[in-house]
Automatic annotation (TrEMBL):
<feature type="compositionally biased region" description="Basic and acidic residues">
    <location>
        <begin position="362"/>
        <end position="397"/>
    </location>
</feature>
<protein>
    <recommendedName>
        <fullName>Septin-type G domain-containing protein</fullName>
    </recommendedName>
</protein>
<dbReference type="InterPro" id="IPR030379">
    <property type="entry name" value="G_SEPTIN_dom"/>
</dbReference>
<keyword id="KW-0342">GTP-binding</keyword>
<feature type="domain" description="Septin-type G">
    <location>
        <begin position="38"/>
        <end position="311"/>
    </location>
</feature>
<comment type="similarity">
    <text>Belongs to the TRAFAC class TrmE-Era-EngA-EngB-Septin-like GTPase superfamily. Septin GTPase family.</text>
</comment>
<dbReference type="Pfam" id="PF00735">
    <property type="entry name" value="Septin"/>
</dbReference>
<dbReference type="InterPro" id="IPR027417">
    <property type="entry name" value="P-loop_NTPase"/>
</dbReference>
<dbReference type="InterPro" id="IPR016491">
    <property type="entry name" value="Septin"/>
</dbReference>
<keyword id="KW-0547">Nucleotide-binding</keyword>
<feature type="region of interest" description="Disordered">
    <location>
        <begin position="362"/>
        <end position="416"/>
    </location>
</feature>
Length: 416
């Protein structure tokens, strides 16, 4: 580029054709094998009033009985007064790929007479998970970092057919900068197709009006036609109208399907004509799980981390790096010490110059005084010399010296 360009950059820019096979094209396979061996961590949070089908949907999504039926409080039983946070972890495996799945449930959300601030324990939990990750990153040994940050939050909207409720808006507004929000319409089998599409429009309008950012599958350039179309289909279904069921029922044509049987027919969970469950699962698990993890790390966590460090009075991003890297810390200390020395030297120079200037000013003043006195004395001497010259001239010309008044009077006998 130019003379100041860094040589490493220049090396990177040089493109060479290889004469033979070196082997680094196998890198993606190495990464693939390593990540498969290590397994994946994914944390999903479910939020919504009790009874909206959260546990059922999670079991349906991961095709495992992660959740056991909950103890439904009996009348009069103390239900507590705050939102609880409960998490369940399970390691599930598919074709040799291990997924360490954690589901964070938030029982009690929206279930009280007063639901003000029911978002708070949830925000606290998400932030505590960020803090735990930050703390691990700052440790000396960072090899075994466990990622327990919430990668996706499925928010269950009651199938009212109206619009979002204040509690929904408040929750999403508080959470959208901290977590990937995925709104879903719960128990969509309770609404007709027309009602669902109208409800979706109203929900999206509310979301836009309140400036809420929900998770959108990113659209990259140079993507193949199929992926672009897949993404568009997923986006067109947001907020997903879902139906959950973890039991098999017989369809009218005799198939065993996951679904819900009603006197008037069967609603199939895995049938795209019946609900958006397939699209939700496609986004959450099949195509965008890595995207959700990446967005959590690169955007949501990064913003939280920056704000946190700023609040602690740290202005530079590299602070954590310096704290964990002794060489960087030493270099910083040396630079600080050198800056201190340079400052002291500059101060000493300034004081010295000031003193010299003062001395010079004093000397100049006494010199001027000396000159002035010298001039005075010279003038006085000159005056005396002129008077003497005068006298001499008069004596030489024989003229009497100008008598003084008193002496003249004496000479002419006028005096007493
Ligand atoms: P949670 O309290 O939100 O975890 O809700 P559950 O998953 O325990 O479900 C509460 C009740 O709703 C159960 O009787 C479920 O069988 C039922 N349910 C779950 N999902 C659906 C659904 O999609 N449609 C309908 N109609 N009922 C559902």
């Amino acid at each position: 580029l130019n003379g100041s360009a860094n040589p490493i950059q220049q090396q990177q820019l040089a493109r060479k054709k290889l004469a033979s096979w070196v082997g680094f094209s196998n890198l993606p396979n190495q990464v693939h094998r390593k990540s498969v061996r290590r397994g994946f961590q994914f944390v999903a949070m479910v939020v919504g009033e009790s009874g909206l089908g959260k546990s059922t949907l999670i079991n349906t999504l991961f095709e495992t009985k992660l959740y056991q039926p909950k103890n439904i409080p009996t009348p009069g039983e103390d239900r507590g007064k705050t939102v609880q946070i409960e998490s369940i972890s399970a390691e599930i495996e598919e074709n040799g790929v291990r997924l360490n799945l954690t589901v964070v449930d938030t029982p009690g959300f929206g279930d009280f007479v007063n639901n003000d601030e029911s978002w708070k324990p949830i925000v606290d939990n998400i932030e505590a998970r960020f803090d735990a990750y930050l703390e691990q990153e700052n440790r000396v040994n960072r090899l075994k970092v466990v990622d327990n940050r919430v990668h996706a939050c499925i928010y269950f909207i009651q199938p009212t057919g109206h619009s979002l409720k204040p509690i929904d808006i408040e929750f999403m507004r508080r959470l959208h900068t901290k977590v990937n929000l995925i709104p879903v319409i719960a128990k969509a089998d309770t609404m007709t197709n027309d009602e669902i599409s109208l409800f979706k429009q109203r929900i999206l309008a509310d979301i836009t009006q309140h400036g809420i950012r929900i998770f959108q599958p990113p659209q990259y350039e140079n993507e193949d036609e199929e992926t672009i179309q897949e993404n568009e289909e997923i986006i067109s279904k947001v907020p997903f109208a879902v139906v959950g069921s973890d039991s098999l029922v017989s369809s009218p044509d005799g198939r065993q399907v996951r679904g819900r049987a009603y006197p008037w027919g069967v609603i199939e969970v895995d049938n795209e004509d019946h609900c958006d469950f397939v699209k939700l699962r496609q986004m959450l698990v099949r195509t965008h799980m890595e995207e959700l993890r990446e967005h959590t790390n690169d955007v949501l966590y990064e913003n939280y981390r920056t704000d946190k460090l700023k609040a602690m009075g740290v202005s530079q991003d590299e602070t954590v790096f310096k704290e964990t890297n002794p060489a960087a810390k030493q270099a910083e200390e040396r630079a600080l010490h050198e800056a201190k020395l340079a400052k002291m030297e500059a101060e000493m120079k300034m004081v010295f110059q000031q003193k010299v200037q003062e001395k010079e000013a004093k000397l100049k003043q006494s010199e001027e005084e000396l000159y002035a006195r010298h001039r005075e004395m010279k003038d006085a001497l000159e005056k005396q010399r002129q008077e003497l010259e005068d006298k001499k001239r008069r004596i030489e010309s024989g003229r009497p010296l100008t008598p003084e008044k008193g002496s003249q009077k004496k000479r002419f006998g006028l005096g007493k």
